[in-house]
Each structure stands twice: as C-alpha cells, then as structure tokens.
Design brief:
Number of helices: 16
Radius of gyration: 23 Å
Bound molecules: flavin-adenine dinucleotide, iron/sulfur cluster
Number of strands: 16
Length: 460
Amino acid sequence: MPNMDPKKTPMPEQEPLVRARNFKEVSYGYTAEQAVNEAKRCLNCKNRPCMTGCPVSVRIPEFIAKVAEGDFEGAYGIIKSTNSLPAVCGRVCPQERQCESKCVRGIKGEPVGIGRLERFCADHMRDKQPDPEIPTPNGHKVAIIGAGPAGLTAAGDLAKLGYEVTVFEAFHTAGGVLMYGIPEFRLPKSIVRSEIEGLEKLGVKIMTNMVIGKVLSVDELFSMGFEAVFIGSGAGLPRFMGIDGEDLVGVYSANEYLTRINLMKAYDDEYFTPIKKSKNVAVVGGGNVAMDSARSAMRLGAEKVYIIYRRSMDELPARKEEVHHAQEEGIEFRLLTNPTRVIGDKNGQVEAIECVKMELGDPDASGRRSPKVIEGSEFALDVDTVIMALGTSPNPLLRMTTPGLETNSKGTLIVNENECTTKEGVFAGGDAVTGAATVILAMGAGKKAAAAIDDYIRNK
Ligand code: FAD
Ligand code: SF4
C-alpha cells in the first residue's frame, strides 16, 4: 500500500542551538523503518519524471521500489550503477531543483525524499560492500588532473573499462571541494574518504601534492606515456568586490576561511591552524558557500553572524535546506543589502562594514530581477570579520602552461559537446569548464568525458 502522507518522513537532526556550536553532522539520516516508510510514498510512475531531473540518470523509481521492499542492497546496486558517489550526492545535491522538482508527489504536497533515500542506501551499505572486481587491464594509460567529483568520476569510469588511471591532485588530500570546501557538519570527511577508497580498490592511483603546471606540465604527462588527459581542476580562484578595506586584517575569501577549517582542521584544538576567533561576522553572498561560511563561523564561537545578500530570499541561490538550517541556527539574513566598504581601526583590523539598501528592478540577462541602490540608505554593521563568498573562477595556471589549451573570457576551458578541449587528447569537465556549479554536474561531465576518452583512444 502506498503511503499517502503529503509530507516527507522527517529526518532526525541535532537540535539547532546545540549543533550551532559543534561540527558534527546536522542530520542523522533515516532509520531502515523511516526509509521504507518514505519509499512507500513513491507512486512508481511509468514515465519516470523524476529521472529527467537527474544529471547522471539514476534509475530513481527502481531503486525506491527496492527500498520499499526492504532490499537495501538491491537499491544501492541500482544507484551505484550510474552514480559513483551516492553518499555524497544524497547529502549535497540540490534535489529541490533536480529530481525532486519533477516528482509528481510534489504537486499536492512534498515530493518523495529522493535524496534522503539515496543517502540512506549509501550509508546502510557503507561497511557491507565486497571489494570490487579488478577490471582486466586494456594496456592504455590516462592522466586525470584534480581529484574533485569531476576527476574522480572520470577516473572511476575509466578504471572500470580497464584503463590504468593516475589522478594528480595539487592538495595533500583527494576530494576537491568535498574535502576543503563543504564543512564536516554537512558532509563528514570519513564519507568522502571511503568513497575514494572504493576507487583506489578499483586500481585508480592517486598522487597528491602534484600541482600540474608546476611539478609537471600537461605535455610532460603525454611524454610519460599517458594517451589522454582529463582536466577537472575546478574553479578555486576567489573573487573580491573591489571595494575599499578588502585588504584589512579580518577579511577572508570564503575559500581560504573554509580551507583552514575543513582541510587544515582549524576547529580542532589538536591542530595549530590559525583562524580568527570572531565575535561578529559578516558573510557577503547568498550561495552554498556563503551558508557554509556563516554556519562555520557560528560553530567557531561567533556571537552574531550576518548573511549580506543584495537580492531577496526568492533569488538566494543556496540549497533550501541549508538556508532553513542556517536560519534555525540563528544566522541573521540582511537581504537587499550590499556592502560599500570595509572599515578598519588604527591597527588595520576590521571594525565595521558599511552597506547600502537595495531594491529590485527589472529582470537582467540571467532572468533575475536586478538590484538597484536606494540612494542615501548607507548604514554600518559592527563586525570584526568579513568573509567574501562571491563566487570563484578557474585558476589560470594550466592555461598559462599548456600551449593550445584555450579558455573563454571568464577563464573557463573551452570544450566541445564531448568535453574535448582545444588541445588534442585533452578533455575537461566540472567547474573548470562551467565555472562554480554543482557536484552532480561535475560528476556528469566526468562521466561524459570518460566515455569520450575511451572512444578517442580506441579510435586513435
Ligand atoms: P573541485 O571540487 O574544485 O576539485 C578540483 C580539484 O582539482 C581540487 O582538489 C584542486 O586542488 C585540484 N587542482 C586544481 N588545480 C590543479 C592542478 N593544477 N594540478 C592538480 N590538481 C589541481 N555543490 C553541490 O552540488 N551542493 C552543495 O551543497 C555544494 N556546496 C558547496 C559548498 C562550498 C563551500 C563550495 C566551495 C562548493 C559547493 N558546491 C556544492 C559546489 C561543488 O562542490 C563544485 O561544483 C564541485 O566540487 C566541482 O567539482 P570539480 O571536480 O569540478 O572541482
Ligand atoms: Fe516516485 Fe516521484 Fe519519481 Fe513518481 S516522480 S516515480 S512518485 S519519485
């Protein structure tokens, strides 16, 4: 019998005021009973509308039907056949804009909790998976630059086809933004590590502390015998506003702030990573990166944390769930507000941020209503830390050191429909091509590129 409850089965979570002061995961995940109950809300629609919203085509109704039967292993097998990082996607995908936005149960109530069920299956099977069968080697070598979701997905798919795959990662740890950007309370690092270990068991070699473009060039990779190269180097170069005071002590890019906390474990007293112990913090921006920075600042002990965003709540690009969690944790949203300068004291330390009020005008080229300044509306907020979360662009290092590799005016790599760049044998995908986007889109690009690389090498 289907479960006709119009609402999703709630997911147990830490209390907001408790979790706002610790870095443990916010949501505990479904129990088996809750997962079966939620799976029974699925109507197993014949035309599978939810699948059209999934960039990696997970066979959603099929896996949910298995969950409803209590066959969690079967469900996991179905997810894993098209999605190599289900424990990650179940936690961080913007499902409300993807699969769940197409779910028919969403017409008269809440959609099926597809992401929550995906997470449940991955967590349930975490320690129960047999080692994968090592594919028969096909004698060809492929190099992957960057161990983020794009590079790791391409690596996994190519390894399954028998390629000898080596991933070169600039940082000392693989995972990309999953390790250095998204905080522990949203995506525990042990989960990312176990997904990566699965790839290593398939035979993927991961070499860390290897900045391609410095330690080795792309052309040197070819002369080492790699027949194709995939660039999944992300978009890690932060943007600033260009306003006065951005050079004051206490102004961070979100990337630096989150990397210190996540990758260098600044929140853990056993590590000596320096980070400012702030009292009042302003985070500028409205995306996931802004929410993560604000919630991390709160967890590090800040008393007051503001999100400063120049549009309204309707345009705020962060995942809905993260906004809801941030509000519950006491983050104050200053919407239709834009900073004009950061004000410092005589020692060069941040002491306030000056802002203006905005109003929404006509829609701009992106279709969003463009914000306009309300003249004479300046005001200041007393803060000792400002975190700029305004988006990022790709680092130009690879373009600068690779003859024939072209980028567009935004600095993103130019690729054709098969993720092939302007240099022969070099493919690319993820944020390095799209600019800052999402985990699942990066994975989709890695998948497509793996198929194109296989085709390229077989037909060379
Ligand atoms: P990345 O994850 O950036 O990985 C690129 C890797 O390449 C990095 O490890 C980098 O060190 C390495 N690299 C770079 N240059 C070189 C080089 N020259 N040589 C060797 N290695 C190199 N998306 C969601 O879907 N949901 C979310 O909730 C979400 N939250 C986010 C929160 C934060 C704080 C951030 C920053 C992003 C978030 N995103 C989210 C976006 C998502 O994480 C990215 O779109 C995704 O990680 C892009 O994957 P990628 O593989 O292209 O790049
Ligand atoms: Fe189930 Fe919703 Fe997909 Fe229909 S659209 S099959 S109800 S998840």
